[in-house]
Amino acid sequence: MDNQNVSQNVDVELKDNVLLKVDHLCQYFGPTKAVDDVSFEIHKGEVFGMVGESGCGKTTTGRSIIKLYDITSGSVYFKGVRVCAGTGSYKQAIKDAKAAYNEKVKTASEDEKKRLKEELDRTVAEQKKLIKEAQYDQKNCDKEYVEKLTAAVKEKYEPLLAGASAEEKKKLSAEYRNELRKAKNSKVITQIQMIFQDPIASLDPRMTVRDTIAEGLVIRGERDPKVINEKVYEMLDLVGLVPEHASRYPHEFSGGQRQRIGVARAIVMRPDLVIADEPVSALDVSIQAQVINLLNDLRDKFGLTLLFIAHDLSVVKYFSDRIGVMYFGKMVEMAPSDELFLNPLHPYTRSLLSAIPLPDPISEKQRKRITYNPLAEHDYSVDKPSFREIKPGHFVMCNEAEYQKYMSVLK
């Protein structure tokens, strides 16, 4: 019994078909707010595109989801389980509450001071409870998943072992131990895999292609060389390479071939979600189309869900069901792909769309570029912006005045 099949058997029913939920995600590096209060959902089977200029926080968002970084604050839920939990917002709430208390208590009466102190203590206790829950989920999110996997393996094999002959029991016992070991070594986050932007930088130059693709299987606990080789060769075939490539090293391949190896390394784990971090930006245009078509084929074959990160809007439009636009660490607009191109509302989205080159030289000569200047476009000095739903499924970062303006534009 394959470990992937076991994991499918223990999957919980997804609420509203939501596979991944990112809730108020913040990722700060010192004073730099790389990702600032980003929220979105990805439904099972869809491709969610994330676009924006270099440095806007797209890659950091993907890396935070897959736990390559410990997030500053917010939560990430995968299959209903909180796999990432930050404590920064709770700690900040305690600091703000103490600062407000110290300010109010200066002019308060004795009775008011007592009431303010009770409110402060209550707020601090609530936030400390949330911090404790976040730390527990961050540390123990795999524990329950492993217990379910282990229980599923035992449920399958124990009846078979009870009714098996002596010869069959020997073979089944070896299978049982192997599957049990893999179940105990599993982590819920390994159901999310990542394809990195730079294929040569993400591949170990000292490891052969076979070792690179098989690494995840080995870490999970697979020890049978025959099984490992079968899966490696299967993946190589799926991505358009041949078994002879397994013994070679990354420097012996072209950029497109190296990216195919990166795809094979991600897919061999049979993940439910793949984060593709600009998988074609470092490739020639003709090779880009091949890799995109490959991802499309794998999506159909395995029923993959993808978070597709890119800065090329024309590629994202072709490949994505919904698109989120990021600017300076914030999500500024999110909508279904066709809707975003038909009704771009946020000035930054319109600026990005105006930058798409046209294949017709006459149209290209007449194309008007739109420059986005946030200081000129928005006045947030009094009325602060929030992420609002302008029409079903179409969200924009705006304040009340801009909201009314966008509503009139759509009408």
Give structural attributes.
single chain, 411 residues, alpha/beta, eight-stranded mixed β-sheet, four-stranded antiparallel β-sheet, 15 helices, 19% strand, disordered N terminus
Description:
The protein is built from 15 helices and twelve strands. The chain has helices spanning 3-9, 58-65, 88-104, 110-162, 166-184, 209-220, 225-238, 255-267, 285-302, 313-319, 337-342, 347-354, 361-366, 374-377, 400-410, and strands at residues 18-29, 32-43, 47-51, 73-78, 81-87, 192-195, 273-277, 305-309, 322-327, 330-336, 386-391, 394-398. It has an eight-stranded mixed sheet, with helices on both faces. The radius of gyration is 25 Å and the shape is flat. It is of the alpha/beta class. 49% of the residues lie in helices and 19% in strands. The protein starts with a helix and ends with a helix.
